[in-house]
């Protein structure tokens, strides 16, 4: 599902929120696919949750998502500390934000609080929400 902003902004990059969950792996697959077809640079955004960077990197390597992608086309912004809301300001305003949705129901997530709600509230970006049954 695409949630557009109220003002037009041309996309110049893609930002995938990756938290090592199966939903974020699916969002990453779609982000990589869009990046390959569009030529947009891919930015990975991770807010660490009591795990080192190596944990997240291992999950990405096991999923074999990066075949055919050059390292210079990917930037990883990994935040091991700091508040999530403050770190969100590191996301470029002209980037399409891609995030995985969890199986709790989109309306419930957006209305009653979640990381997705923080992202949507703070960022001025268009958001692509990848659901449980999305396919690449």
Please give the largest β-sheet. Answer: 6 strands, mixed
Helix and strand run = EEHEHEHEHHE
The low-pLDDT segments are none
- Strand proportion, as a percent range, falls in 15-25%
Distance between the termini: 14 Å
Shape: globular
CATH topology-level fold name: Rossmann fold
Name the strands of the widest sheet in spatial order: 1-6-5-2-3-4
Instruction: Give the CATH architecture.
Output: 3-Layer(aba) Sandwich
- Could you tell me the mean pLDDT? 83
Query: What is the gyration radius calculated from CA atoms?
Result: 14 Å
What can you see in these coordinates?
With 136 residues, this protein is α/β, with parallel strands linked by helices. The chain has a single domain (2-104, 120-130), classed as HUPs (Rossmann fold). The protein contains five helices and six strands, in the order ββαβαβαβααβ. The protein has helices at residues 22-38, 53-62, 84-87, 106-112, 115-122, and strands at 2-3, 13-17, 41-47, 74-79, 95-100, 127-130. It has a six-stranded mixed beta sheet, with helices on one face. Strand 3, helix 2 (53-62) and strand 4 form a beta-alpha-beta unit. It is globular, with a radius of gyration of 14 Å. 25% of the residues are buried. The model has no long low-confidence stretch (mean pLDDT 83).
Helix-strand blueprint:
Elements: E1 2-3, E2 13-17, H1 22-38, E3 41-47, H2 53-62, E4 74-79, H3 84-87, E5 95-100, H4 106-112, H5 115-122, E6 127-130
Parallel strand pairs: 2-3, 2-5, 3-4, 5-6
Antiparallel strand pairs: 1-6
